[in-house]
Amino acid sequence: MNFERTITSAPQVEATYKSRDVEGLIDIYFYRKVGFFLARIFARLKWTPDAVTILGALIGVLAGHLYFYRELAINIAGMVLHVFANALDNADGQLARILQQRSRAGRSLDGICDAVVFASVYVNLSLRYVAEGGSPLIGLLAFAAGYCHSLQSSVADYFRNGYIFFTSRGTSGELDSSEALRKNVRGLSWRREPLQKFLLAAFYVNYTRQQERLAPPQAHLLTAINARGGVSSWLAQEYRRQNRHMTKWFNFLTVNTRMLILFALLLIGKPIWYLFVELTVFNAVLGFVLVRQNRMSREIGAELERQPS
Description:
Blueprint: H1 3-8, H2 25-44, H3 49-66, H4 72-99, H5 104-131, H6 138-167, H7 178-186, H8 194-214, H9 216-227, H10 233-243, H11 247-252, H12 255-267, H13 273-306
């Protein structure tokens, strides 16, 4: 690949958005701009998107460890590293778009690294609480918060990608079905593509299956649309009309909101409260989003069945 030509012809930052409708304000005005700047640097250095993903995870794990300490200056250093890690998490996807190297295996690795970063946060917040004289049983609360975090992120990702896919009439977005993924995995060779096959088989298929279990009406809607040969103009318009105002709730369940709340609690010296916020506020939003979106997908699916094929 001619990297210099790739960089010269690279899209502007707006072209690396997933979709402006689902981009939060912090992403648009900060992370996407910083991520795009970093992506162009990594392209010149001939880094791969996966290498950037792993670098971001290592920095994020270190940031989580710095939350263990009670000294505010060390916590602030952790916040700075956490922001940088999140910028790298944006940069890897933007680099993949610049180099046209997007892949399901890359998405799987990205999701694993995101989970590892927040696992570091939960572990270190729990250890800090115990070191300050708290009960070791806080570990159970941290585990529950981490599990709920996984479900919330999964749902947010599924509905955000669903919005992009349906409103773009299938021309963009990364909305997969577990059945199609299983077929894809069976077509991969352990000898020629061992890492890709492992990431898809061990993680991405199960991740997608979890999304489908949480939001079966959207999975059924995707199946019905594929059977009809694609997303109609009516469905794209109707989906946007009913969902555009919901994107802010999808974004609430993503990393930016978590980081803002965590940083605020670190600044006031009460970081362990983050676990309770995760289990209450975030789960309440998750419940609202699931109920509303599942009902909406059923209604659109029913209307689609009444229309001629």
